[in-house]
Amino acid sequence: MKKRRNVVLLTIILTITITFALILALSPARKLRWIENADAAADARQAIDKSDFRLKGVYGDGVFVPGVDEDNYFDCVNDYGVDPIKGTSSKTYGKEYEKLMKVAISYAINYNRTILNTAPKTSKKYRSDCIPKLLQKTRPVNHL
User: Which residues are CB-contacts of 56 (< 8 A; sequence separation ≥ 6)?
Assistant: First the structure.
């Protein structure tokens, strides 16, 4: 009887432990935590070195590309291409996720500004009209 009780108790503990581990592993915030320590400008320069001029986008109802001039948005996004940040979404998964989404938007703005300001002017991808006047030479954006 005691042995059976121990087996049942152990089964319950293992089930609870595995359930919490899966919840944490599948957490939407977990997929975005890398962005807290990311260096957007350095990542953009690395991409430029590989001739990758795609702009960073953020998932929402579609894909939004922050930091691109509104008047020329569609032409610029079409010319440069988009690399969406995986793990972003318009859905709300709690306060940590909301904070990480703000960081992701700041990251995308800073990344895109670096691409748009640093991409070789001789590149067929370069378009000065894609850079919003407000973001041309300002300090990095931080939404926190």
Answer: 40, 65, 82, 83, 84, 85, 107, 108, 111, 112
